[in-house]
Amino acid sequence: MRLLGNAVYVENRKLSRSPVLWGMLVFLLFVTGIRSGGADWNEHLGSMTFLFASVFGLMGFGTITAWTFGREYTDRTVKDLLALPVSRTTLVIAKAVVIAFWWLVAALTIFAFSLLIGLFIGVPGFSWPIIAHQFVELLLIAVFHLLLCSPIALLASISRGYLVPIAYAFTTLMVALTAGPTALGPYLPWSIPALHLSMSGLTLFPLGTASYVILILVFELGAFGTISWWKRADQR
Question: Where are the transmembrane segments (predicted)?
Answer without folding.
Answer: 20-38, 50-70, 91-123, 135-155, 162-184, 204-230
